Amino acid sequence: MSLASLTTGILVTGVGAPPGLGTLRSLRLADADLNLVAADINPLAGGMFEPGTPSVVLPSASDPEAYRAAVREVCTDRKLDIIIPGSEAEIAALAPVAREWTKAGLRVPVAEPDVVAFGIDKGLLLELVKHVGLPHPQTLQPSCVDDLADWSGGFPCVVKPRTSRGARGVGYPGN
Cis (ω within 30 of 0) for the bond into 137? Predict the structure, then answer.
């Protein structure tokens, strides 16, 4: 049985970054007959130019309502029945409607919104790890410079925001 026989088509979003682009290319390699549509907020994203793959520009998922409306319209117009989001922001925008859409025949393979929140927010995940007693590196969540006085973890260390995209905001101070 081919993958193409299991779906009318798949919308792969976030094709300007490695997760989305990798998903798009992997699906194409798995079954050349799949009806794939590439999507991104950037019309110049690399995945928008994959040979034999139509593409569509979506609004930013930072406006979840507009994003979801655009995704639904694309899926309806192009008769797609699966959405594979390629970024955390898109997953977060789709998670609240995923179960409802899946029941209506538009499959969205994402976790429940509260689970997604733990994957996106490192601070929430740290609180859960501490609560259940799992081992973890010394971690501070400072709100001001004075909060850093408690650091005893040594250097170099990793500094990163609770939420970010890619490696934005990550640093490695030596002292």
Answer: no
Q: Are 12 and 80 in contact (CB under 8 A)?
A: no
**pLDDT 10s digits, 93-144:** 999 999 999 999 999 999 999 999 988 888 888 888 889 999 887 777 777 8
- Residue holding tokens 């989305």? 20
Pair 32, 24: CB distance under 8 Å: no
In tens, the pLDDT along 31-54 reads 999 999 999 999 999 999 999 999
What would the two tokens of residue 7 be? 């779906």
Residue with tokens 């995940």: 125
Q: What is the 3-state secondary structure (H, E, C) of the chain?
A: CCHHHHCCCEEECCCCCHHHHHHHHHHHHHCCCCCEEEEECCCCCHHHHCCCCCEEECCCCCCHHHHHHHHHHHHHHCCCCEEECCCHHHHHHHHHHHHHHHHCCCECCCCCHHHHHHHHCHHHHHHHHHHHCCCCCCCCCCCCHHHHHHCCCCCCCCECCCCCCCCCCCECCCC
pTM exceeding 0.85: no
Q: How many residues comprise the chain?
A: 175
